[in-house]
Amino acid sequence: MELSEFNGPYFLDQEPEPCGHYHPDVLLFQDSLNGGDKIIRTTFCFKCKSYFYKGIPVDKFSESFLKELTDEGKKVYATLEQLAAFREEKLKSFLPGNDW
Ligand SMILES: [Zn+2]
Q1: In angstroms, rounded to a whole number, what is the distance separating the alpha carbons of residues 91 and 74?
Q2: What percent of the chain stands above pLDDT 90?
Q3: How many angstroms is it from 37 CA to the middle of ligand 1?
Q4: Which residue has the higher pLDDT, 51 or 2?
Q5: Ligand 1 centroid to 63 CA: how many Å?
Q6: How far away, in angstroms, is 38 Cα from ligand 1 center?
Q7: Nearest-CA neighbor of 14 among 4, 26, 5, 3?
Q8: Strand, coil or helix: what is 27?
Q9: Sign of the C-alpha dihedral, residues 7, 46, 15, 10?
Q10: Of 65, 51, 60, the residue nearest 17 (C-alpha)
Q11: What is the largest CA-CA distance in the chain?
Q12: What angle (nearest 5°) sits at the alpha carbon of residue 81, between those of residues 48 and 13?
């Protein structure tokens, strides 16, 4: 079975992301400050091959998190290549006993 054939949900009661796909097909890509009052959370969906953006009020985040944002007001979690590798590992881990 190919990893691309998996569509989730990957565990009981898993909630889909707004695009209808599931983690780890959808992964956090970056957070950035938008004018100071919102964090724009960017996720990437490997099924849709698209970025998605969600505004979250800054006060929902801890001060320590906000300090982690760089001078450009941005925090990039990983490159798409790194995310793709993470996703593949994660999908494999959902298949205990499968001989990859
Ligand atoms: Zn999607």
Answers
A1: 28
A2: 62
A3: 27
A4: 51
A5: 31
A6: 23
A7: 26
A8: strand
A9: positive
A10: 51
A11: 49
A12: 50
8 neighbors 48 (Cβ within 8 angstroms): no
Tell me the one-letter amino acid at 87: R
> To the nearest 10°, the Cα dihedral for 92, 31, 44, 82?
-50
Q: Identify residue 31 by its one-letter amino acid code.
A: D
**25: CA distance to ligand 1 center in Å?**
7
For residue 16, cis peptide bond before it (omega within 30 degrees of 0): no
Q: Which residue has 């990957």 as its token pair? A: 10
Domain positions in the chain: 18-90
Rg (CA), the chain: 16
Lowest mean pLDDT among 9-18, 20-29, 70-79, 83-92: 70-79
65-89 exposure pattern, b = at least 16 Cβ within 10 A, e = fewer: eeeeeeeeeebeeeeeeebeeebee
Q: What type of residue sits at position 89?
A: E
Q: Give distance in angstroms: CA of 64 to centre of ligand 1.
A: 30
